[in-house]
Each structure stands twice: as C-alpha cells, then as structure tokens.
C-alpha cells in the first residue's frame, strides 16, 4: 500500500474467503484493473451502464478511488476488488452499496468479473465472503441484488448463494444506454445465520 493510500483511504480489513481475498482498491491496482476491464469489454458491456470515452483512463480510475474512499468513510458503500488468496491476481470487483440504516438496515450488492475468470466459481466465493462483512460486521439485515432477466449467469449465482427472487422492477436501471427491467433478489440476515448453523462453518474471515 502506498503512502497516499494510507493517508486517504479508510482502514478496512480485507476479507478472506475460499481461495479469494477481498480488499479496497488501491492506486497500485490501476494497471491490472485497466487490463482486465479492457480485455473483458465486450463481455461486460451488456450488463453495465454505458461506458464513458475515458472509462479506462488513469484520471477516471483516480476519481473512482476518491469516490470509493469517501463512500466508505461515510458508511454509504464499500467497494472491494476480488483477488486470489495471495492478493496477486485481480479477478473482478464486488460492492455493498446504497447502504440504508435506520429501519431498513439494507444494502444493494453489485459485482463484475473478468471474462477469463467467469464460470470458475470465483464470484460465488466472493459473495460468500462479503456476506460476513454486511451481516456480521456491518450489522445489516437485508442484502438486495438486481439483475437483468436475460443474465442467466447472475441468476444462477444469486440462487446458489441463497438469494430469493422477490419481484420484477420495470425500467429499473439504465444498462448499455437503455432502461431495462430487472429481477429483484434478496437475502436476509436470519437466512444467512441459519445456513451458517446448518453448515457448521463460516466460509469467510477477516484479516
């Protein structure tokens, strides 16, 4: 971690899962992030907001880091990069965002993975790792996730991770330049704690 990272970034623990490690993005991750996003452009674009002309520039990345750090300091959103267990290989990213406190105690889950790593079960491991963070550390009661009805990979992932489909949201998000319907999925804290008790193990840990 660079001196600037230590001075400007919130000090959050990394999250260790089954063969994956989650931590907040750093300045030194830029090249790996740019290369992975660039080679996965056509794979990712159908499922994401319209890419800007300078999407992969250093300036755009620097502004992302600033926003991630501020949101984490405010307790509004936590963005992690997903690495292998040693923190050497970047796989993708995952965010617990739109955090609502008060009577809601909920957040919205978002994620992306590089094309070369898709289908290997890595995102499922990352989702399992972030559950501990949102339920046990942040004390949230509900995690929501929205996905396009055509995104069968994401639907399978959420259902494998215990999320239940709760609704159909009309023109919910602007994806690839168009307003698109989404399925709404959710997982509750008591469902997560119940599954932990049945399994007898916790798949994640803080470092």
Helix content: 25-40%
* Helix/strand order: HEEHHHEEEHEHEEHE
Radius of gyration: 16 Å
Unreliable stretches covering 5 or more consecutive residues:
1-8, 200-207
**Which secondary-structure class do the elements indicate?**
alpha+beta
Quaternary status: single chain
DSSP, total strands: 9
Strand content: 25-35%
What would you call the shape? globular
Q: What's the overall average pLDDT, rounded?
A: 91
- What is the number of helices? 7
The spatial strand order of the largest sheet comes to 7-8-6-5-4-3-2-1-9
From the N-terminal CA to the C-terminal CA, the straight-line distance is: 15 Å
Largest sheet: 9 strands, mixed
Structure explained in plain terms:
- This protein is an alpha+beta fold and 207 residues long.
- The chain is built from seven helices and nine strands.
- The chain has helices at 3-8, 30-39, 41-44, 58-74, 122-137, 152-160, 189-199; strands at residues 15-16, 20-23, 78-84, 90-100, 106-113, 142-147, 164-175, 178-188, 205-206.
- The protein has a nine-stranded mixed sheet, sandwiched between helices.
- A hairpin with a 3-residue loop joins strand 1 and strand 2 (20-23).
- The protein is globular, with a radius of gyration of 16 Å.
């Amino acid at each position: 971690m660079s001196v600037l990272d230590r001075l400007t970034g919130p000090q959050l623990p990394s999250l260790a899962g089954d063969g994956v490690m989650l931590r907040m993005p750093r300045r030194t991750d830029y090249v790996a992030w740019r290369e992975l996003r660039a080679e996965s452009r056509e794979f990712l674009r159908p499922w994401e907001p319209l890419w800007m002309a300078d999407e992969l520039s250093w300036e755009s990345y620097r502004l992302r880091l600033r926003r991630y750090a501020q949101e984490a300091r405010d307790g509004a959103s936590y963005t992690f990069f997903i690495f292998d267990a040693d923190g050497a290989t970047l796989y993708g990213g995952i965010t617990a965002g739109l955090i609502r406190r008060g009577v809601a105690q909920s957040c919205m889950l978002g994620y992306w993975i590089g094309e070369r790593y898709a289908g290997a079960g890595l995102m499922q491991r990352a989702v399992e790792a972030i559950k501990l963070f949102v339920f046990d550390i942040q004390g949230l009661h509900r995690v929501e996730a929205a996905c396009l009805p055509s995104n069968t990979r994401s639907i399978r992932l959420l259902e494998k991770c215990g999320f239940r489909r709760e609704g159909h949201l009309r023109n919910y998000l602007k994806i690839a330049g168009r307003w698109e319907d989404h399925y709404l999925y959710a997982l509750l804290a008591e469902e997560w704690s119940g599954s932990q008790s049945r399994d007898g193990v916790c798949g994640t840990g803080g470092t």
